[in-house]
Design brief:
Blueprint lengths: L12 E7 L3 H12 L4 E4 L15 E2 L11 H17 L4 E9 L7 H13 L10 E4 L15 E10 L1 H14 L3 E3 L4 E7 L2 E6 L3 E10 L5 H7 L9 E12 L7 E5 L5 E7 L3 E5 L3 E2 L11 H12 L11 E12 L13 E5 L8 E6 L5 H16 L22 H11 L5 H11 L3 H5 L18 H10 L5 H8 L8 H10 L5
Parallel strand pairs: 1-2, 1-10, 2-7, 4-12, 10-18
Antiparallel strand pairs: 3-6, 4-6, 5-6, 8-9, 9-10, 11-14, 11-15, 11-16, 12-13, 13-14, 17-18
Helix pairs in contact: 1-4, 1-7, 8-9
């Protein structure tokens, strides 16, 4: 009997292999796939599991960057605010920020000048402009100490950061990209005219170009995957936040100045809480998951207490989180002075310039970064299709920017058995895709088991099917923030039931 011929199966080849599934990698994958490139994106963990889920969750120009003369970065960021709001009005929305005038720090005229520039640098059309507040007569001043009599109120936007990552990846996948969570890139070697990489357990792939978008791990990838042992391009700066029971009832956020020339924010968070942060502390390495230090806790409590009538104490804290910013090492002496701008740089020593690294960056400018990256990609690989870098809606965002309440009421009418608070949260997370989650449900029993805080089986099934959820932590602290609402027993019950939900 003739023996069967051995089939030599070639490993899959992609135009672009992206290492890192944070906001920069996700944005590049979306942009590249929509321009017609074949794309594979790998992340060693869950998407947005590092810096991109540990931000202060703002789409903003960066008011304090004006002091460091980063006008291009501020302008680019300001221009992106309304674009992103239109693309994802469910997870991005306007927020008004109150800046109390502290007589011992920056003079009022300097603050007003900075805010004038802030209002006019970025083509603001929908967001309201800055106004001056009498904090003694205005209820917005009520939570503050009586020494703060004057303030300024300006506009920026809030974003559900880790959800923005996921929506970019879903768009990329829809355009044909292969998206692989928990799949580390173990090695890569440039032979002939392409990269040969080993990913996951032992799978082989090849790529014409590799983009290293590993965030804080960008140098670690250069050392471990590519063997560039002297890679030292970023300085690791930890930003930590505390979450306390809400300090006030209104919907404004505060921006507080400190004598060390830093600022912190106090922001309404998850209905029942106030988010306070962030810090700027050098992080030595990434051996352990970044955690807030006792010194950072003290710093945030003391700084917030300088402004609030009711002090913020360590006993008020219900949750903390920390992330590491991979700031491009520009030689700045202080962490807060290091540039927040991104740097895109081809690695000349390997791969004939077909390894491109990203250093730094911020959530607000991820689209601009992706556009700049694709300009370089097109120079190397040639153009695939017409430029698709547009202002399309992200999944669930196909409704008007001022139409959120109308959408909530529309779904409340269809699913009248759900409390208003639960429906509001669902629309905030999923927008028009709420109908895909709830389907033809006629009553609360149709939603499956309830795990607390409005989390039902149907939502978990949707997340597992469409958003790469593999562990309970993915749900509780990245796809949603329900982890701070659930009790320990409820989380335990969810973990016990999770493997059985499909």
């Amino acid at each position: 009997m003739a023996s069967a011929k051995q089939v030599n199966v070639q490993p899959p080849h992609y135009d672009i292999l992206i290492i890192g599934g944070g906001i920069n990698g996700a944005g590049i994958a979306r942009e590249a796939a929509n321009r017609g490139y074949s794309v594979c994106l790998c992340d060693s963990g869950d998407f947005g599991g590092g810096t991109s889920s540990a931000s202060t969750k703002l789409i903003h120009g960066g008011l304090r960057y004006l002091e460091h003369y980063e006008f291009r970065l501020v302008r680019e960021s300001l221009m992106e605010r309304e674009v992103l709001w239109k693309m994802a009005p469910h997870i991005i929305w306007p927020m008004r920020f109150v800046l109390p005038h502290h007589k011992g720090l920056r003079p009022a005229w300097l603050l007003r000048l900075g805010l004038f520039l802030y209002d006019n640098l970025g083509g603001r059309k929908l967001l309201p402009q800055t106004k001056t507040l009498n904090l003694v007569e205005n209820q917005i001043g009520a939570p503050l100490k009586t020494m703060f009599k004057k303030g300024f109120e300006y506009s920026d936007c809030w974003v559900e950061d880790s959800r923005l990552v996921i929506l970019n990846l879903r768009d990329a996948q829809h355009a044909g990209a292969v998206i692989l969570p928990r799949t580390p890139v173990k090695s890569a070697e440039f032979k002939g005219d392409k990269w040969h990489a080993v990913i996951g357990k032992s799978e082989e792939v090849s790529a014409s170009l590799i983009i290293n978008a590993a965030g804080p791990w960008v140098d670690e990838v250069l050392r471990g995957v590519f063997g560039i042992n002297d890679a030292r391009n970023v300085r690791l700066v930890r930003g930590s936040h505390i979450v306390v029971r809400k300090k006030y009832e209104h919907d404004r956020a505060y921006i507080f100045q400190n004598s060390d020339e830093r600022i912190i924010f106090a922001i309404p968070y998850e209905r029942d809480f106030t988010l306070i942060g962030t810090t700027d502390v050098e992080q030595e390495n990434l051996i352990r998951k970044p955690q807030i230090s006792p010194e950072e806790v003290k710093y945030l409590c003391e700084m917030a207490s300088e402004y609030f009538t009711e002090p913020v104490t360590e006993n008020d804290i219900v949750w903390t989180y920390s992330g590491v910013r991979p700031l491009f090492d520009d030689g700045a002496s202080k962490a807060q002075e290091a540039t927040r701008d991104y740097v895109i740089k081809a690695e000349e020593t390997l791969g004939s310039g077909r390894l491109i690294n990203i250093f730094g960056g911020k959530i607000t400018t991820f689209r601009s970064l992706a556009g700049s990256m694709l300009s370089q990609v097109e120079e190397i690989l040639g153009k695939r299709t017409a430029d698709q870098h547009g202002q399309e809606f992200f999944p669930g965002g196909d409704f008007p920017v001022h139409g959120f309440e109308a959408l909530v009421n529309q779904f409340r009418h269809k699913y009248d058995f759900l409390p208003h608070s639960v429906m509001t949260r669902l629309v905030r997370h999923y927008g028009t895709e709420v109908s895909s989650i709830l389907g033809n449900s006629k009553n609360i029993e149709d939603l499956g088991k309830h795990f607390g805080a409005g989390l039902y089986e149907v939502e978990i099934k949707f997340l597992k099917k469409h958003e790469w959820v593999e562990e309970v932590e993915d749900i509780l602290f990245r796809r949603t923030k329900l982890g701070i609402h659930l009790t320990e027993d409820q989380i335990k019950n969810l973990k016990a039931a999770f493997p059985k939900i499909s």
